[in-house]
Write a structure and sequence with these properties.
This protein is an alpha+beta fold. The chain has three helices and three strands.
Length: 128
């Protein structure tokens, strides 16, 4: 009597093409294909993050920062009118606020990109 996997009752069975029932190469080939695709997808994600430019600002745009998708600071712009007050503490606060705003957005982008690498329905909180 044949079971669901096309084997007679009492014989070792498996899923066709997945290495069961004597076809051990099928599973290895499938795993290699999945690994290759994951590697390619991860490389594409890294390229997108490197190319991304995320802005943050403070003081109504008087201080602006730009980071890449990996959180590397790329640029800071300070409106000259902010320097007229000669208030170093205020300027420091504005710079920190602008940089942290951009870094937070970059972290959100990285998380979203990493979620794209996960197989559908496989959401593991805290994995990335």
């Amino acid at each position: 009597m044949a079971n669901l996997f096309g084997k007679n009752k009492g014989q070792a069975g498996g899923f066709p093409g997945l290495g069961g029932g004597g076809n051990q190469g099928g599973m290895a080939a499938m795993i290699q294909q999945v690994q290759k695709k994951m590697y390619e997808d991860a490389e594409k994600m890294a390229e997108r993050l490197d190319a991304a430019r995320i802005d943050g600002s403070a003081g109504g745009g008087s201080v602006k920062s730009t980071v890449d998708g990996n959180g590397k600071l790329m640029n800071i712009t300070i409106d000259p009118s902010v320097l007229e007050d000669k208030d170093a503490e205020m300027l420091q606060d504005l710079v920190l606020t602008a940089v942290n705003a951009a870094l937070d957005k970059a972290a959100d982008l990285r998380e979203a990109e990493q979620q794209k690498l996960m197989p559908a329905g496989m959401n593991i909180p805290g994995l990335f």
